What we know:
The complex is a heterotrimer of chains A (113), B (675) and C (222). With 113 residues, chain A is mostly helical. Chain A has 4 helices and no strands. Chain A has helices spanning 3-6, 11-41, 48-70, 78-101. The relative contact order of chain A is 0.06. In chain B, the strands form 4 sheets. A two-stranded antiparallel ribbon of chain B has the order 1-2. Chain B has a two-stranded antiparallel sheet with strand order 3-4. Chain C has 222 residues and is mainly alpha-helical. The chains are: A mainly alpha (113), B mainly alpha (675), C mainly alpha (222). Chains A and C meet through helix 2, helix 3 and helix 4 of A and helix 2, helix 4 and helix 7 of C.
Amino acid sequence: MSSSHEAAPSQDFLAEEVRRYHHFIVLALWLAVVTGAEIVLIFLPIPVAAILTILTLMSAGKFFAVILWFMHLIYDKRLLFWCFFAGLALAFATYAAMIMLFSVDRIDTRWFS
Amino acid sequence: MSHDSHHAPVACKTELAPERSDLGLIRPDRTTGLMDWLTTVDHKKIGILYGAFAMFYFLVGGVEALAIRTQLARPDNDFVTARMYNQLFTMHGTTMIFLGVMPLSAAFFNFLVPLQIGARDVAFPRLNAFSLWTFVFGAFVLNASWFFEFAHLAGWFNSFDWHKALVYTDFAPANGWFSYAPLSGTFGQNGQALRFTGVGTDFWIIGIQVLGIASLAASFNFICTIINMRAKGMTMMRLPVFTWMTLVTAVLIILAFPAITVALIELMFDRTFGANFFNPSAGGQPVLWQHLFWIFGHPEVYILVLPAMGIVSEVLPTFSGKSLFGYPIIVFSGAVIGFLGFAVWSHHMFTTGLGPVPTAAFSLLTMAIAVPTGVKIFNWLGTIWGGRVRFTPPMVLALGFIWMFMCGGFSGVMHSAAPADSQQQDSYFVIAHFHYVLLGGVLLGLMAGLYFWFPKIFGRMPNAPIAYIASGLVILGFNVAFGPMHYLGLAGQPRRTHTYHAGNGWEQWNYVATIGAYILGIGVALAFVNLVWTAFRGKKCSNDPWDGRTLEWSLPSPVPEYNFAQAPIVATRDAFFEDKHGTKRIGSEPDGGEAGVHMPSQSWMPLVASAGFLFIGFGMPMMAMGVPHAGWLVIGGLGVLFLGIWLWALEGPGGYMLKTPAASGAPVPTETVAH
Amino acid sequence: MSDTAAAHEAPTSTGIDHKKLIMWLFLASDCMFFGTLISTHLLYRKLFPAGFTDAEGHQRFIQNLFNVELTSFSTFILLMSSFLMALAVSAMHKGQIKSFRRNVLGVIFFGLIFLGCQVYEFTHFYHEGLTIQNSVLGSTFYVLTGTHGTHVAIGVLWLIMMYFYSFTGKLGGHMGALDVEIAGLYWHFVDIVWIIIFTAVYLVEYLGPNGIWGTGLPVVAK
């Protein structure tokens, strides 16, 4: 093992890690809160469309929060974000299109319901 | 860990002292011969192995194609049975696509990409070996189904009551290379899982699954290599076009293959565990299989053709003595083709009744793909225009590529119009179209690549007269075989039908097509014999016989293990050509001097890990067939896979130092020093 | 991690480590993988909102099977395991191997709880009459959540091996921290897939009297 890798991390690096540590704690709390809110939300007597919109936004928020902070994308090189985002966007677009292509009025589902 | 003798630089790896890995096992670094080939992590050797297997399977697929054409030569022929015919066209398509074209492209990726970007190896050498062996075992499993079929035909299985488990007893796959559900799936309720086809489909499912893993692993590796291991000065817009097309292809593979992976898992659950994904009796939608298959399948078409386009983009400038016309536009067009490839899958499904809006949308998007393709063709023509053209064998094949691929493209645009497509669907017109693209395009491109880079790979020059004759036979035979199919298709001859009656007006052109197929077969066989002969006995040639343009031609032929004694520093596109004839020289980074060049250690573990797929590959179909205890074979296979990966992780990367001739001041000695 | 490891760390063209780049590429690919599975499930929910018929021939709705408390609990557990994983990676960056071990043990423990919940859920649903064979719903639900569970199990196995490997003293320095970070990326990804599954597969079934897929058919009481 070469000694350069064993060298103690610099002060800047440690300060950065401490800062991240606090971000992680705050984020974990938020994730718990949002998950709680989601569970309450589904039982609220408001229009389904509104609930669905909020649910989608909330889970998208959680999704990107984990990617950006827990998975360090906000600290890392931007190329990594675009690598991942390409797959994510393509998956979303392709399968949204595919689900839309399956129109209920074109498929006779009566026999199986 | 200390600097033991293993890490002292040596001139030849056989001089190394034996070294134990972190596991305490001796690393196979010093091996030669068969052991060396089995444990190699050298991208050049892996590339050669990919190429050798691919050429073998090309011949297998070719024999299957000739059997099909022989059957169709006369009306009401009975050269093969209807069942055998189904198996032949299924395995012909599957073999050519997954075991012929893709691995041959992979052979070029492996051999060329590190050389073209000025790197010493790929980013993950052991993962690269894993990809190779996984491909080899997947291909073996897929083709092993033939042995079961032949044993069945010979009556070996007659004492068993196979009909308990199977409706029909196809032992080789027989549902086409797309394996459409519900034919490939099941029917019946509550997990009865009654099957339309025999165990061949299960071999197909697991075989494609394993091949997919091989392609995925290789593609992650290549994207990483191209993005991360470029030599100094090798910016993205200085990459050779072949490397660019490799990158686009690899991106397509990692984003397209998961769709087929999941579709295969679902189909496997249907057949083996009685699930209902595509089971029409329980509400499953067989058309979902078509969607998932083509979400993979259409990008797959570009996965097949883009490497060939990359090869042609290297061959044309070299033999025109000009730089590639419109480099940025060619690269951009390649990327656009790749991107659009994901947005057109439903044009394979116009006749399933998508509805007017989706049909119109997919129709327009499909037509749009003709634009970047056309841009590429005009740029290739612009490259030749005004050049000093040398009609060498690779150039002849590359010109053939442009011409034939264009013909395939034209009939492709005809398919993009949905009303026309609904007339052409499932007719020989479609066969004519995709063979013009895949044979006139991809095969000619790959053959151009073989003739172009063989002198670099083996340091020997293929026999030119034979090469011209072979190229001529291939182009002639191919046109005679597939040209008439345009007519046959429009005259109504259906695909995938084992025979036809006399009196439909199809006899004459089917006969002509069969003659063409045999001419084509002779041409390909001649070319392969020529190439294999060259590899062992061909006339030695110089390091740069074509006046090449990219970095690989600056190296000795065959290329030394460490590729570049000194890592190059690139100042321009076509760096080597500029270095020879222009003003910008290739710089070089200081070499390791006495310390030598770091080489990755060889390893058994990729081979061990991928051997697990062999057990899984035989276990899964046997399980579906109802063979008792076959599940244990699958679990054992997973165990071997896990063990291989585990030992691989724990053995440590290792590595040794190799002296370069520059550092040792002398050419690499061949005799082994006692150790 | 011998002296030769240094040679592997030759600076890359982009400054991104090979291992990190390949992991992100794998995750991009895995988006398509789970996208296919999730869309298969949603597609069939859209076509057959009525759920499934159990062994007694009763029409059943899936939200009557779901247990929102259990699913919320296992979601919470997985989110917190992600938090601990982030702390474990952070500890490795700071070279605090003991803190790393503590956190990673927490991740393993939470992962096992999640898997336990899933085993319980599968057994419960099976006894309630939802099987992989008796309906499309059963097929898509079990294969989707089962595949996710397999990902979790692989992650747990990976982290267990990393935990024991840390005692050999070879897990250290820049390369060691990188290896942990890669495992962390995988673990977080499994977590975000569950965030989607939790919403798209579980929560939406509770919307409206008969679920978002609203059928108008009466809900059969348990």
